[in-house]
Amino acid sequence: MKLTFWGATRQVTGSMFLLETEDQYRILIDCGADMDKKTALNGNGQDEESPKSVAGFFPFEASSINVVLLTHAHMDHSGNLPNLYREGYEGQILCTDPTYSLTNLLLQDAASLNHRRLNEMGKSKKQKVRKKMASLQKDLFLEKQVRESMDNVVPIQYNRKFRLGDSIDVTFVPAGHLLGAAHIIINVYENGEKKSLCFSGDIGRKNYPLLGDPEPIPQVDYLICESTYGNRLHLNSETPEAMLADVIKRTCIDIPGRLIIPSFSVGRTQALLYTLNRLYTEQGFPPIKVFSDSPLALESTKVYQKNLRLLNKEAKAYQEENESLFDFVNFEYLESSKASREVSNYNQPCIIISSSGMVQGGRVEQHVAANISNPYCTILIIGYCAEGTLGWRLLNGQPTISIKDKEEPVLAKVERTDVFSGHGDRDDLVRFVKHQSPEKLKKVFLVHGEFTSMSAFQQTLADEGFTNVEIPTKGQTYEL
Asked: What pLDDT shows up at residue 134?
């Protein structure tokens, strides 16, 4: 049996791992978009760093894959599924039912953006732009490829073995992090011997709003473990309710101000709305107007509401008592672009939740542009912002910011919290690994993290008795 690491190696994004059995059954675990420009595929669809790349978008023949297993919906795990079908894959995708629903929303949203991007480039009369458009058409999937992908999804229940054949079975175990997210356990029976692997996916944190805690996994032979927070702890130890209560009091109650919260539409926004709902109903906050400005967030919230049975005990009890997790007094979804623009004219204290979380693209840019020079506005960053994004520049204290080709002085306050991060920190990761016996676990592979994070986590695990820990490089294959 062979395991090849084709993504999320010494970087966070692009999760993609290929498992090949002795009888040539090939399983692809995750098929994520690589958002790191330094290692992204070149214009020919090939990875310049890997000598194993073949012609096409992927470094392997898509048609040779027998089945895809998907840990969860986020684009760095699912974002290249449509391209896999476009390159000739004809098999099924196995994932939980909520993962299917959220992945469909995210991929449809991306396809719509790709369509608009290609249309805009097609209108250009510049030869250079049209040449770039021809190149991009090879890499940008559209709605047709998304439909083809989603038509081949087989929903899998948690904690029930699913047989892929006489010699392979898989089990999806709740991972927290996002609705529907799973650790995937694969048992392979070869030559009278069972070999077991666990792909952690993204490991959630304990006591996260709405979601249950990550469940422990049984003993396995090989553990492929994410390491996003492998070298650090979460900065904020307070509860989400306490943090939001403090910020709202300072920004919207003590002064008649405006609070803008850039937030990812899937997962993060639902945690925010649920927390705000509890603040208003349980702590008696004044009914400050709350706007959610993301059509994708609206559709994602419907998926959460539909899957109440998979939420944690607190969320289910709250739903039973209050009849809604996400709807409360003075809350409004802004569905149209016109309604989004008109919020600028709202002159009372308010909270605006809008995507994207990195303040890069999406409707949140117009809200930040309209308020960046307003000293009565606070911008609360609640997630990771990649270097170079508008969110990253705000966090780095730049005195002026260029938005939509206009330089603006930064007079608004900029704050940050990580209480809504869906990733477990170093202690959560250690807790996950320590469910395994160091004597029985043959190897740990660290993925989905910056190299500095991986190296630090490798040492932390060594201190805990796990000495056989590898940090694979892209394209590296291991015989198991």
From this structure: 60
| Among 132, 137, 90, residue whose Cα is nearest residue 115 | 137
User: Could you say which residues of the chain have pLDDT below 70?
Assistant: 36-56, 123-138
The pLDDT assigned to 333 comes to 95
- SS3 call for 196: strand
Could you tell me if 100 and 106 are in contact, meaning their C-beta atoms sit under 8 angstroms apart? Answer: no
- Whole-prediction pTM: 0.92
Cis before 356? omega within 30: yes
Identify the pLDDT of residue 129. 57
Bridge partners of residue 162, in order along the sequence = 170
Query: Can you tell me the distance from the alpha carbon of 347 to that of 56, in angstroms, rounded to the nearest whole number?
Result: 53
Q: What pLDDT shows up at residue 35? A: 76
Query: What does the block give as tokens for 12?
Result: 């966070």
Query: Which backbone phi and psi does 102 adopt, to 5 degrees?
Result: -70, -35
pLDDT at residue 291 in the model: 97
Which amino acid is present at 439? E
Q: Cα–Cα distance between 401 and 390 in angstroms, integer?
A: 8
Residue 264 CB neighbour total at 10 angstroms: 25
Of 156, 129, 174, 175, the C-alpha closest to 67 is 156
Rounded-to-integer distance, Cα 13 and Cα 389, Å: 16
- Residue 192, amino acid: G
CA dihedral sign, ordered 361, 366, 367, 369: positive
Side-chain half-sphere exposure of 465, counting CA atoms within 13 A: 9
DSSP reduced 3-state for 447: strand
Q: Tell me the two tokens of residue 77.
A: 């795990």
pLDDT value for 370: 93
Cβ burial of 416 (10 Å; 0-12, 13-18, 19+) is middle
Q: Would you mind telling me the total number of residues written for the chain in this entry?
A: 480
Query: Both tokens of residue 41?
Result: 């595929």
